[in-house]
Amino acid sequence: MGKRTEQAKPLDAGARLAPRRDFPIFENWPDLIYLDNAATTHKPAAVLSRLDEFYRLTYANVHRGVYRLAEEATAAYEEARRQVAAFIGCEDTGELIFTRGTTEGINLAAGSLDSLVQDGDEILVTALEHHSNLIPWQQLCRRRSLRLRVCPVTPAGELDLAALERMLTPRTRVAAFAMVSNALGTVVPAVKVIAAARQAGAVTVVDAAQAVPCLPVAVGDLGCDFLVFSGHKMLGPMGIGVLYGRREILEKLPPYMTGGEMISRVGWDGAQWAELPQKFEAGTPNAAGAVGLAAAVRYLEEIGMDRIRAHETELGRRARELLGRIPGVRVLGCPAACCGIVSFVVPGIHPHDLAQFLARENIAVRAGRLCAQPLLRTLGVEAVTRVSFYVYNDLAEVEKMAEAVEKGIRFFKAKK
Amino acid sequence: MRSPSEDPYTDAVMRHFRNPRHRRPVPPGEALAEENNPLCGDRIRVTLRLADGVVRGLEYDICGCALSTASASMMSCILNGKTPAEVRRLTALFQRLVAGGEISGKERSELGEVVAFQQIRSYPVRRKCALLPWRALEKALATLDRPAGRGSSKEAGG
């Protein structure tokens, strides 16, 4: 049998998937090596011009006016909803709620699920969580005397699936987890986790803030009840995000915010809620953001999410390899499935000093606690330096980053 | 783009970072104040005493970056032997310095090496690093102002 240990890689593996010239920011910062994509991503001209076009040509408030301009604005907003829904394999646009971002999506889920929980229930999260998928659940537990349980991670930075099985019990009402860790880049086996949680009777909430930008996500295949993500981490505008929720469960839940546009009939003594998705979109929505996000989705689809995943994996793998070779560097975690997010520490050198040194070399990285204090504490570190990649990065940039890290270590460790 | 002259890691900063003065392990019970930076988890504990109306034994224990460590070291060098009133005035001066405010020639000479931190004005996120030791110091001095701490000091008011 012709055994091959490694899958054949295309010759251009690690080359940019999107040219820098598509991103106007690099015209103003031509030497910048931007490796802070897990924090936010830059915008292609296609997204910026779509925003501009929306404000210039089809701008009015949506779902209100009957004049033609308002009809066009509403049509653009709803077309954006259709495109974004299709991007995550959601066929029913009533299940696609526009939010401000992941944080609002999780708060919406946690706030509305308040009506489904009972005293003594448990909520399960994992040790990989970002603060935004932890604190809303902590608060819900506090309000309703629930128990918050945390599924541990292995030293490799992977979810401990055996522990997960044990911790899912008939009392587990909600299982909420990050599909991709914002600190370690771990890709969690979401299908498995969701199947196990559903079997236990739990409502599943997927924090896909780092997943939707870098891998193909189809809510139908996942089988989750909720999935949330942000536009700005996937080339879209800031202030727009998505909460996908299964119709069956969204119909059972009360609205999270109330006000205009989310009602069907209002009297002095009460109101009836609008149909989905408007029931969860109180007030004037960020229609421009939604239209911009749809443009970002089209840009990503043109590249292909499978290619993006392969690219992220390749850059992440190379970064781990190069950083791991530098004496004194400890790369955090070594998950079998990971994408383009790598965190590391250099004992004796503060992450903010290292990041500042890299900034001097025109390399933008993140340093600090990554809004993941409990996870970092579990791994025995206070703060880290993190590099994260996207479509406009290439292997040469990864190599320059590793060289600069080495140079930085020499600078801070110099005796005099 | 920033010019190299705005680099925060000046020779003076790196010298104090590599050899911090008056730094020693300070157990929590002995510390007069502790401060931390929630952004990165850096911590500092400060201790000092007042003798004959001036600050003595200003020492600290720090787990921090090059900037906060150098800032603590320089702070301890210029403030030991000063009255609480002088300490407060120099602290305000330091805050003005890192915020990018105007500093007179006379004030520059009073601050001495600490002037190296003027570069921080171009790095707003790192201001907190430079200020961390000084915030802890203010807190430590405040504990001495309380009636319980007053007995040890002849010049408690400042």
Keywords:
heterodimer, A: 416 residues, alpha/beta, Aspartate Aminotransferase, domain 1, Aspartate Aminotransferase, domain 2, 2 domains, seven-stranded mixed sheet, B: 158 residues, alpha+beta, Sufe protein. Chain: A, three-stranded antiparallel sheet, 6 helices
The separation of the N and C termini of chain B measures 44 Å
**Total number of β-strand segments of chain B?**
3
**Quantity of strands of chain A, as a count:** 15
Rg of chain A, Cα atoms, Å: 22 Å
How many domains would you count in the coordinates of chain A? 2
Q: Roughly how many Å is the radius of gyration of chain B?
A: 15 Å
Please outline what is shown here.
The complex is a heterodimer of chains A (416) and B (158). With 416 residues, chain A is α/β, with parallel strands linked by helices.
Overview of the molecule:
The complex is a heterodimer of chains A (416) and B (158). Chain A is α/β, with parallel strands linked by helices and 416 residues long. Chain A is built from 14 helices and 15 strands. In chain A, the strands form four sheets. Chain A has a seven-stranded mixed β-sheet, with helices on both faces. The N and C termini of chain A lie far apart (60 Å). With 158 residues, chain B is of the alpha+beta class. Chain B has a single domain, classed as Alpha-Beta Complex (Sufe protein. Chain: A). A three-stranded antiparallel β-sheet of chain B has the order 1-2-3. The C terminus of chain B is likely disordered. At the A-B interface, α12 of A face loops of B.
